[in-house]
Input
Amino acid sequence: MSVGKRIKERRKQLGFSADKLGEMIGKNRATVYRYESDEIENMPYEVVIPISKALNISPSYLMGWEEEDVIPKQLSSTYDYYPTVNVAAGNPFTIDGVEKVENIEIPDILLGKWAGCKNIFFMRVNGDSMNNVLPNGTLIAVKKVNLQDIKNNDIVVFSNDQEYSVKRMFSYDNKIIFKPDSSNPIFSDYVVNLDEAKYLQIHGKVVSYIVNLD
Output
């Protein structure tokens, strides 16, 4: 396998775009594609090292000096995690100790383009009002975003006077409606009138999730 094919294979394994890899090594997308197509022969050492670090593989593996079946170490990133705070996927409920934050390490391949994003934190779903998408116990990646960047039907984490929950969000006229997505018909919409939404906060949008299947 050529050096270019190793770069491309590992980049795709990690879910990196050519733009992301280029940003990590200080090159543009076109240059990354040139590396991957082996247009650049005798790649200099000062290029091999940053590529190896970005892809989390050894320079010797990249250059083909190790066996091709060597499995490179999987790259992962660390994020803020609220271990004692389960986000209600039922009716909103009060959370105590939300300021207590720990760290969680997640393989980059699981988050794809969101891997390493500094604006992402993790929480765990508690309840069944979103079980069509997010079953009870699901680990969710929440990205902090501006309100104008949230579209109708996005899944968000929100609080209203320290009540935290996760729902699909819809904005109509002067109201925000948080809708369940559940197989259980007992759950209903949570409607907030913006004129009275003194304590309403949208903490972020769910951009990825990890589900444990039985």
